[in-house]
């Protein structure tokens, strides 16, 4: 079957959507900016609640448990723990919905 109506072959027999091995520098910059934006939202919420004389348990828990962007190591900013990976780490961009889910905490030692 030649011509304009020939069947298409799958791309290299693998996934149709290829994910690059590592994050590009603009993706890393956007990830850092996302983390900083979340930190500013949490700090604004905390100061506004303190001015009113109240607090929210979730905001206090976030501040106690989650590190800020400047406190995080680059390894933790751009990779996440995955027990199925060879070195127990995979790029954060390979996690589903990685731009909307917080991936700041990893098991100790990894």
Task: Describe the protein.
The chain is mainly alpha-helical and 110 residues long. The chain has helices spanning 25-52, 57-65, 74-78, and strands at 79-81, 89-91.
Entry keywords:
single chain, 110 residues, mainly alpha, two-stranded antiparallel ribbon, 38% helix, elongated
Secondary-structure map:
Blueprint: H1 25-52, H2 57-65, H3 74-78, E1 79-81, E2 89-91
Antiparallel strand pairs: 1-2
State the gist of this model:
This protein is mainly alpha-helical and 110 residues long.
User: Uncertain runs with pLDDT below 50, 5 residues or more?
Assistant: none
List the strand order in the largest sheet: 1-2
Q: Give the overall shape, derived from the CA principal axes.
A: elongated
Order of helices and strands: HHHEE
Number of helices, where a helix is a run of at least 4 consecutive DSSP H or I residues:
3
- How many strands, which pairing sense, and closed or not: the largest β-sheet? 2 strands, antiparallel
Radius of gyration: 20 Å
Percent helix range: 25-40%
Give the CA-CA distance, first to last residue: 53 Å
Structural class: mainly alpha
How much strand?
5-15%
The average pLDDT value, as a whole number, equals 87
Number of strands: 2
